[in-house]
Amino acid sequence: MGSKRHARRDFLKSGAALAGGFTLGSVAPAIGGQAPASSPPMIKGDKDQIAYGDRSKYVTSVRIPHGGRPSPDNFGLVFHVAAPLQDSVGVITPSSLHYVATTRGAFIPDIDPKEHSLMIHGMVDRPLTFTMEDLKRLPSVTRIHFIECAGNRSSPRAKTVQETHGMTSCAEWTGVLLSTLIKECGLKGGASWFVAEGAEEVKGASSMPIAKAMDDCIVAYGMNGEAVRPQQGFPLRLMVPGFEGIFHTKYLRRIKNVDRYYMNYNDFGHLHEGEKEKETALSYQVGPKSVITYPSGGQQLPGKGFYEISGLAWSGGGAIKLVEVSTDGGKKWSKAEFKGTPQAKAHARFSYQWNWDGQETELLSRCTDELGQVQPTRAQVAKYWNKPLDPSFSVPGLDNTIQPWRIASNGSVTNGNA
User: What's the rounded Cα separation, in Å, for the pair 418 and 403?
Assistant: First the structure.
């Protein structure tokens, strides 16, 4: 009995001391700070505890090699890896599922940010070199933008949306506007282009109009609330909103302002013979483009009844203003609903409520951006290029044609272009 009274007295004394501490102005440990030595230990759980940050074992979304080349290949090099759009929700692609593309197949450089810097030179008054610390001291912006590789296309050989459109992703990017850095250097009159170079083993580079640099390009060090990941260009990546992915230079180390277009390694493979092809290759801008992610190729509908059709739309021309869905192969189009407010040069999530009668049909989506550009059909593009519309037809340049998904009476979903 005495021992119980003693324990109660000690408890009350400790409580009074705590209350008195607040009265006297003592400082309590900050949230997330070091706990007092007298605090009980954290509960660790059993041996099967899921590690912090791990996904559930029941979630199996993975990236896959894209373009017919294994990744990693026999030399251990990563080439094209596609994001699992069929499993996506919302508009943000997790950093671990963001697509990866490289035209050079070089090893991912292991860069110490303390040793990395960005040089801006050429036609400027004051050539400057910025360390990572310098860049993080400057005013920053945080914006949501998509990136898309030219390898994305509605190929009849593809079976799933990951194979047709998995080379696009959308993330939140944080960094310094390129225009801020160029203004700090003082741009000279006559400068009309800039060349961006990364730090890969093979020094790819891209030429872009200086007007784009002064508009919305971001020298990004942050992605989805953390540092840019190595496969995405750590510690520094150039974001060129709305332009084809190859221009979003990874491991950015140098920008040269020049007075004319320079043919670089990255640009060469994207040029073709003929004036129309050159015009397409040098237009840079992606979209407008949309694709239904559910239901899509390789998926199975359990039976007739209600379904929410869901998909993504994006454009290098700005925000998506309208998405339409057809559930009868393009005979009739209905307005889809946006999930949230579409952002400029970012993925927009759309949906459409559909009651399937169990009959064979075809699903399509098309979008219109704020410039009034409308996503075309493959037939329209083939006619423009004076090409026959058959499975062998490959859209020159960037392919933003409508992707159909065929629904069989048994609920199986296949590529409507096959």
Answer: 11
Instruction: Name the one residue in this structure whose structure tokens are 């900050």.
Output: 30
Q: Which two tokens stand for residue 256?
A: 């040269």
Measure the CA–CA gap between 113 and 359, rounded to whole angstroms. 58
Q: Which of 312, 293, 227, 248 is nearest to 100 (CA)?
A: 248
Q: 3-state DSSP call for residue 261?
A: coil
Coil, strand, or helix at residue 295? coil
Between the CA of residue 187 and those of 178, 180, 182, 263, 360, what are the distances in Å? 12, 11, 6, 22, 60
Q: pTM of the entire structure? A: 0.85
The 10s digit of each residue's pLDDT in 103-154 is 666 678 899 999 999 999 999 999 999 999 999 999 999 999 999 998 898 8
- Name the 3-class secondary structure at 176: strand
Q: In angstroms, what CA-CA distances link 110 with 76, 229, 244?
A: 15, 11, 25
CA distances (Å), origin 279, targets 236, 270, 314, 333, 380? 30, 11, 22, 32, 18
Please report, as a single letter, which amino acid is at residue 105. Answer: G
Going by C-alpha positions, the residue among 195, 148, 209 that lies closest to residue 397 is 148
Coil vs helix vs strand at 14: helix
What residue spans of 186-300 are helical by DSSP H?
Answer: 210-213, 265-268, 275-281
Beta bridge partners of 145: 171
Strands 117-122 and 254-258 come out as parallel
Exposed / middle / buried, residue 278 (Cβ in 10 Å: 0-12, 13-18, 19+): middle
Rounded CA-CA distance 198/76 in Å is 21
Considering only CA atoms, give the Rg of the chain: 27
Q: d(Cα 336, Cα 114) in Å, to the nearest integer?
A: 48
> What is the rounded CA–CA span in Å between residue 150 and residue 398?
6
The fraction of the chain above a pLDDT of 70, given in percent, is 83
What are 71's strand-pairing partners? none
Map residue 179 onto helix, strand or coil: helix
Please give the pLDDT value at position 104: 63
pLDDT of residue 281: 41
If residue 135 lies in a helix (H) or strand (E), which one and from where to where? helix 132-137
